[in-house]
Amino acid sequence: MKVSLFITCLADLFYPEVGMDTVELLEKFGCEVYFPDKQTCCGQPAFNSGYHKEAKEAAKHMITIFENANYVITPSGSCATMFKEYVHLFDDGEWSSRASKLADKTYELTQFLVDVLDVQDIGVKLPVRATYHRSCHMTRLLGVSEAPGKLLSQVEGLEMEPLPNCHDCCGFGGTFSVKMPEISKEMVDDKVQNIMKSGTDLLIGSDCGCLMNINGRLTREGKPVKVLHIAQVLNGKSVDRGESDGYPYK
Question: N or C, which end of the chain has less CB nearby within 10 Å?
């Protein structure tokens, strides 16, 4: 099965290991992964800030880059959601139709592993107590809520604990955390408090933006909780409790 990887800005610039783990996971389950090297930002920051004209230009570019793909896979529920939003950006029949075709073949990573590849045995081990952060776009807009749990339940030795108020936003929200830093800080502080209440050693999530925001606050507060993207967990990355530089993978 041939698939195309949509890496996203945050994974490309800050979490390249998440992209590598995504590729290795897909290859493990029989996919041939293609990386369109002319891909750029999907336009979500502009779209969320109300700059729809600029977002349309980014959308047209990304539609053109990915429209010949069989499947488009991304390690971000938020950015997968943006590809779905392209349909609502265009009144023009041609671009609306092209956007719809792209939306239909775009999947967040865990969604693809469960709904398309029907993965029943992830084949990795991670003996640690962890909790899972539900990102807003992935659960509320993309509608993917069950797939991560189904896959994490297959990880040998992983003990998952519920995260109190798990549906609360972490306060990142893309440009929201930049434009409203005081409110964003209060929101992520609440998230950190709930993570500590879970009594776990590891936080897992499916969106790099959320994880960057939460991990930054955990690190600044000196909390002994590590953070991993779900692609890293499913690809067998371990947690090194001895590290102190904010990077929880090895």
Answer: C
